[in-house]
Amino acid sequence: MFRNREDAALQLAERLGARKLKDPVVLAIPRGGIVLGAVLAAKLGAELDVVLARKLRAPYQPELAIGAIGEDGEIYMSPFAYDVAGVTDEYIESERKYQVEEIERRKKLFRKVRPAVEVAGRSVIVTDDGIATGSTMLAALHVLRAKTPHEIIVAVPVAPPETLDKFRPQCDHIECLLAPRFLGAISMFYSDFQQVEDDEVLRLLGDVASRRKQA
């Protein structure tokens, strides 16, 4: 159990502190991941940015991811997607269009504060506040792998073992504090799991960028 996202991030930073990193950058999956990302960036002396990937929601069960779409527009479907009630090609196309629009909205909003960083040749740490099916993280990893970083590190507080196994071909190292076989809701592992809004993402991106300029 973590007190809050900051507590989880401090524990991850301690695990990663001894690792030799090459010009590190932390990429957070918004919105919840940005809180962890800001702490990791501060502790590891890294840049902070967001990686924009969105889950494709199941009909009638918006918390269930049947897949995800990356910033590059490529779709990754979960193996069970078509077993979920209401999932058809038409539904997936409709959900894809909705999530593309949301990615573009966030891109316009967040890039006013933080232009996209260059990741080629660098140690890239990708973080979120927890992972269930892993579709969104997998989409993010596919996007990043194409940009030829020095290494990709997945750093998350909690994720089930079978989900972590999905990431191994797409990253170089995984740091996960808790790997319960039966996950349930991510919020169950936090005493405080408040909603993170866009304003908080913008503030944290701006704060970390300002500190680096002053350093």
Question: Can you give a write-up of this model?
Answer:
The chain is α/β, with parallel strands linked by helices and 215 residues long. The chain has two domains: 5-51 and 117-214, 3-Layer(aba) Sandwich (Rossmann fold); 55-108, 2-Layer Sandwich (Ybab, Chain: A). The chain has helices at residues 5-16, 33-44, 89-110, 135-145, 161-167, 198-214; strands at 25-28, 47-50, 54-58, 61-69, 75-77, 123-127, 151-158, 173-178. The strands form two sheets. Strands 2-1-6-7-8 form a five-stranded parallel sheet, with helices on both faces. The protein is globular, with a radius of gyration of 16 Å. The termini are far apart. The mean pLDDT is 91.
